[in-house]
């Protein structure tokens, strides 16, 4: 006959609880891993999209604007918010395509700024210039919502009106900042109206002002570092001179003592 002690029975009973706890822990860890994986995958896709967009913009600058002695200041990849009405008799479409709204200026004086619609059709590595407007023809820039980051925006020209959605809200914001700065710089008479735009686009928090502030700050820090280094070098020179004088005095004193004892 075997006797089971109370302690042994408690251990045996508690041992059955461990697998349940382990299963819950594993399930939690699996969910955490899945969330981390999907977050990593989302960030990776965003990074790849950003790199692809930057590569496309660089190619547009070289293919479309450089041959005409123009300089591209910025671009945003877009798609229409509403489908464009196609005439009933229109045929022979070229299929799917990517659309970019580009802002450029001429290198020759007087400088002229323009907004150009550029397309890249599916299966092609080249870009095609489509519609183009002088910056003076731009009448209104609508950011849609001034209270949140939004990828939607409208552009109103003298003879055209388009409703767009940028690939990302940050890309739209960057393009708006460059567009606003360009209008302020190159348009003297009639400037377009910017409505429903966030304050960071219109105010002093734009990337252009931030870049200028960063450069100024870097110059100030470098100047301060040089001044501090100069002060340290000056103090080192003073100490060196003091040590030199002390050494000379010591040598003279030692020489006098040596001559005195010699006599």
UniProtKB/TrEMBL annotation:
It is a peripheral membrane protein. One of its GO terms (biological process) is regulation of SNARE complex assembly. Residues 204-263 form the V-SNARE coiled-coil homology domain. It is found in: Cytoplasm; Membrane. Gene3D superfamilies: 1.20.5.110, 2.30.29.90. It comes from the Eukaryota. The keyword Coiled coil applies. Its main location: cytoplasm. It holds the Pfam family Synaptobrevin. One of its GO terms (cellular component) is membrane. The keyword Oxidoreductase does not apply. Keywords: Acetylation, Coiled coil, Cytoplasm, Membrane. InterPro entries: Sec3-PIP2_bind (IPR028258), STXBP6_PH (IPR037821), STXBP6_SNARE (IPR037822), V_SNARE_CC (IPR042855). Forms non-fusogenic complexes with SNAP25 and STX1A and may thereby modulate the formation of functional SNARE complexes and exocytosis. Part of a ternary complex containing SNAP25 and STX1A that can be dissociated by NAPA and NSF. Interacts with STX4A. PANTHER family: EXOCYST COMPLEX COMPONENT 1 ISOFORM X1, SEC3/SYNTAXIN-RELATED. This is Syntaxin-binding protein 6. It comes from Canis lupus familiaris. The lineage of its organism: Eukaryota, Metazoa, Chordata, Craniata, Vertebrata.
């Amino acid at each position: 006959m075997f006797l089971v002690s109370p302690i042994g029975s408690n251990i045996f009973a508690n041992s059955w609880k461990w697998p349940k706890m382990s299963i819950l822990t594993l399930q939690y860890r699996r969910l955490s891993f899945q969330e981390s994986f999907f977050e990593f995958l989302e960030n990776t896709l965003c990074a790849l999209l950003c790199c692809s967009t930057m590569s496309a913009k660089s190619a547009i600058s070289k293919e479309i604007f450089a041959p005409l002695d123009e300089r591209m200041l910025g671009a945003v990849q877009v798609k229409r918010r509403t489908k464009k009405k196609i005439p009933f008799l229109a045929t022979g479409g070229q299929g799917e395509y990517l659309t970019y709204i580009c802002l450029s200026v001429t290198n020759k004086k007087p400088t002229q700024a323009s907004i150009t619609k550029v397309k890249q059709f599916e299966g092609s590595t080249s870009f095609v210039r489509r519609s183009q407007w002088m910056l003076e023809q731009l009448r209104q820039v609508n950011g849609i919502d001034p209270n949140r980051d939004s990828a939607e925006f409208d552009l109103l020209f003298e003879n055209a009106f388009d409703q767009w959605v940028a690939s990302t809200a940050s890309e739209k914001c960057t393009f708006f900042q460059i567009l606003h700065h360009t209008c302020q710089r190159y348009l003297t008479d009639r400037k377009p109206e910017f409505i429903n735009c966030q304050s960071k686009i219109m105010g002093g928090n734009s990337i252009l002002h931030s870049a200028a502030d960063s450069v100024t700050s870097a110059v100030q820090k470098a100047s301060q570092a040089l001044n501090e280094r100069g002060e340290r070098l000056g103090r080192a020179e003073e100490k060196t001179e003091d040590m030199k004088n002390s050494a000379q005095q010591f040598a003279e004193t030692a020489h006098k003592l040596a001559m005195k004892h010699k006599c």
